[in-house]
Amino acid sequence: MTTVTADWLQTVDALKEVPVSQLQWFIDNSEHHHYPVGSTWFKAGDAVPGTHIVISGRAKLYLQQHNDMVELMTLEPQSITGYLPFSRMTKAAASCEIMEDMQVLTFPREKIDDLIHQHFELTQALVHVMTSRVRDFTSLQQQSEKMMALGKLSAGLTHELNNPASAVLRGARSLKQHLQLVPDVFKALMNLQLTEAQVDAINCIMFEVIHQGPPPPMGMLERSDKTDELLDILDKYKVENAMDIAENMVDFGFSEVHIEQFRKHIADKAVSPVLNWINTNLVTEKMVTDIEEAASRISKLVDSVKSFTHMDQGQDKSWIDIHTGLQSTLNMLEYKLRKGNIEVTRNFDTSLPQVSAFAGELNQVWTNIIDNAIDAMEPNGKGHLTVTTAMDGKCLAVKITDNGPGISPEIKDKIFDPFFTTKDIGKGTGMGLDIVAQIIRHHRGHQKVNSEPGNTTFTVLLPLHD
């Protein structure tokens, strides 16, 4: 075993400024322990006996979740852990397994008062260790939760971006092939030698219908009847590609009345070439519209990502419309909502004033709560999510309600505790709602939850003024 001296303790970075006399007092009042490899040092829930300094060996801290072990960190030589001055820790939050034979110096908790009253520099050093531990641990867990949330969002976002991107690619390729056929149709039209007045009349009728926009959605039977009506009149004038033309014209809202309007300005022999040229324009219009809609969908998703991460603004508080973040979050989770067959109702009071907030942090709050609601409704195969904004006294209230099975009374008081989760391994760290609570406290607000089977509501209250 390593002989522990005051000089050795001064090699520990946190203790290097502590007087030798205080370190020797610490050694004299401490206990030496040896733990063999493969043994368990302590388990989550065990009482913490005192302050530990690892002299040699290694151990790993881990959490047990659904029979799986989630590793948190590794204790190396010179690590300081356990109870520290002014800490509120009474029980271990995690378990510890010895990876290499370990020698530990343990200062008993019963003597902490003597330490605090008699040895200022040593107390100060250990308090600094505690604050650093809290800061590093909180940062680590927040980053872990952010990465898990990002993983959830990225899967759906990838799918959502892939669909319109593929649509743009398909549309571009189809449009390229279609445009190669246009010269033949145009040549047939030129051979008719139409007058300028005839061309203007045809264009006027065609674009008047196009600019009206597509007709209301039709059932299969109604659409079939309208197509047959157009086919009858197209066959009357012996129009080539009649079926293709009829189907496209129905999509744009053309009827037999428009065919007769075209007919008034051209001879019978010109009807087929003219309608084929019009059909070419309709096909082009349809392809360009599909590409535009797909590109618009991509743009909407990119805007949602930008708004969600708030990457174009600084890290300071700013006055924000709460609905922007809520809508961006719903956009980001749209794939998961659609996959879960979840209907969303937005009861937004858009007249609410802006709030001073860290927009990116609040988006993390909405993501965690809504994602939990989606997971809760998953077993039903469908669900209803309601997001409501309203005034509540001097606070702005955001209520997120789901019709899942509810939260049992046994765990309701634990859901905001660190590491508490009912999700399977890999689906949750148990830090999501703890981080929600931290962020809300950061905004000087508070949260509450009411739950019964079929109706669970998380309410976030944010003060309107700093």
TrEMBL record:
Enzymatic reactions: ATP + protein L-histidine = ADP + protein N-phospho-L-histidine
The EC number(s) this enzyme carries: 2.7.13.3
InterPro entries the record matches: cNMP-bd_dom, cNMP-bd_dom_sf, HATPase_C_sf, HATPase_dom, His_kinase_dom, RmlC-like_jellyroll, Sig_transdc_His_kin-like_C
Coiled coil: none
One MF annotation (Gene Ontology) recorded for this entry: protein histidine kinase activity
Residue ranges of every copy of the Histidine kinase domain listed in the record: 291-466
Limits of the Cyclic nucleotide-binding domain: 14-133
Name assigned to this protein: histidine kinase
